[in-house]
Design brief:
The protein is 38% helix and 22% strand. The chain has a six-stranded parallel β-sheet. Strands 10-11-15-12-13-14 form a six-stranded mixed β-sheet, with helices on both faces. A three-stranded antiparallel β-sheet has the order 1-2-3. Strand 10, helix 12 and strand 11 form a beta-alpha-beta unit. Helix 1 crosses helix 11, helix 2 packs across helix 3 and helix 12 packs across helix 13.
């Protein structure tokens, strides 16, 4: 059995199950003049205009499927996607922008989407399409804050070891569109938000920084996060002043009872758990015993690697467990970068696992992002087994050195083991798969 090849096949099946078009088709349909979205039903005759807006790596393909369903019922629309994630649309325009660090196009996209939101009336419907990446792709500069201030802060946060909940808490406080404020702009129009979740537990206030959801966090919370991760001194004075001037208060829309949420429906249509179920089904198709153990794996990527191997060894020693067995995990780990190398949390996890597996036979591990991009690289992640260490040593590659330099990408580039999918146009966090023989 080529465990590494099987792992990649299982991962690809998981990704295919959460592609944007499929998720939209599963939840949205039009019969005669009735628009059905999950368990909600609307007469298309009731609305003067229907607007489509959105942001995230999957939003263009989500928009394309909405066009297939609604056609010329769409009055106008705009979505923001990561570079390389656009597609041809007929009624909706697209801006490609920076991710994970916002850029000028992120600001342009936010302004275009706010302009559409602000023109919606009580006789209109706005459908918002959100997925992972939306936080960076929708960026504005409140107060005296400059885009360069936000670019630097995003880079600091991503390297600090902060998790996505902390990062998006900060982002929400530095915006006039995040943290429920897009819903405020849309009001009094009906607002339906369809969401592909990339955050553990699927909290709608954190996915894409919750532009259409109530925001329970405060600017004081944001300040505390900057202090916790020791990046306050490197943060621009304009940001510190903005957060300090209103410390302890929420930005814009915050409470679920506010009037601008009365016509708002936020619906999760895709998640990590759906992908894990598809992976399990693929295992059954391949005749492999499998277990979904968690869709909430988080924390430091090195500790996560150690946890995966500990669990794998436990199953390996269990004589009552049919082998091979596939252990399925989902979630999103973090990495605090202290080197100048290139990589991402999944590749770093896999590389540490390779080091730990050097004397352990019969275990193979894959860790990869469902969006097809791990950190600032073109790899989704990597796959390793007990042979990775010896093979690398034979090529003169020192795993410990690559780990110290946080240079997992160049290790796998030389040693092999990368998982390449290209942009998948979706994002439901990461998947970690272990095969035990």
């Amino acid at each position: 059995m080529n465990a590494c090849a099987v792992l990649e096949e299982i991962f690809n099946a998981a990704v295919q199950s959460v592609l944007p078009g499929k998720m939209i088709r599963d939840y949205v349909s039009v019969t005669d003049s009735t628009l059905a979205i999950a368990n909600l039903h609307f007469s298309l005759r009731e609305f003067d205009c229907i607007y489509i807006i959105g942001a995230g790596k999957a939003s263009a393909l989500m928009a394309k499927e909405m066009e297939n369903i609604l056609g010329d019922h769409i009055t106008d629309g705009h979505v923001a996607v990561k570079y390389g994630h656009a597609c041809e649309l007929n009624y909706i325009t697209v801006t490609e922008a920076g991710h994970p660090i916002p850029d000028g196009n992120s600001v342009i996209a936010a302004n275009k989407i706010l302009a559409i939101a602000n023109k919606a009336t009580a006789q209109d419907m706005v459908i918002c399409l959100l997925s992972g990446g939306g936080s960076a792709l929708l960026t504005d500069c409140p107060g005296e804050i400059k885009l360069s201030d936000l670019e630097k802060l995003n880079e600091l946060l991503l390297k600090s070891g902060a998790d996505i909940k902390e990062i998006n808490t900060v982002r929400k406080q530095l915006s006039n569109i995040k943290g429920g404020q897009l819903a405020k702009a849309v009001y009094p129009a009906a607002l339906i938000t369809l969401i592909l979740s990339d955050v553990i537990g699927d909290p709608i206030d954190l996915i894409a920084s919750g532009p259409t959801a109530p925001n329970p966090t405060t600017r004081e919370d944001a300040m505390n996060i900057l202090k916790k991760h020791n990046i306050l001194q490197e943060t621009s004075p304009a940001i510190i002043k903005f957060l300090s001037d209103s410390s302890g208060v929420n930005t814009g829309a915050s409470k679920a009872g506010e009037e601008y949420f009365r016509n708002t429906h936020n619906l999760i249509i895709g998640s990590n758990s759906i992908a894990l179920e598809a992976a399990k089904n693929k295992c059954a198709e391949l005749g492999i015993n499998s277990f979904i153990l968690s869709d909430k794996l988080e924390g430091d990527s090195v500790k996560a690697a150690e946890f995966l191997i500990e669990i794998a060894e436990r199953y390996q020693k269990d004589n009552n467990c049919k082998k091979p067995v596939c252990l399925l995990f989902g979630g999103e780990t973090t990495i605090k970068v202290n080197g100048n190398g290139l990589g991402g949390r999944n590749q770093h996890l896999a590389l540490h696992a390779a080091l730990m597996l050097k004397d352990k036979k019969g275990i193979a591990i894959l860790s990869a992002g469902t969006d097809g991009s791990d950190g600032p690289t073109n790899a989704a992640g990597a796959v390793v087994n007990s042979e990775t260490y010896a093979a690398a040593s034979g090529m003169g590659l020192n795993i410990e050195k690559f780990l110290q330099e946080f240079d997992s990408y160049h290790f796998f580039q030389k040693a092999g083991g990368h998982i390449f999918t290209g942009p998948t146009m979706t994002n439901v966090m990461d998947i970690m798969i272990v095969i035990v023989e």
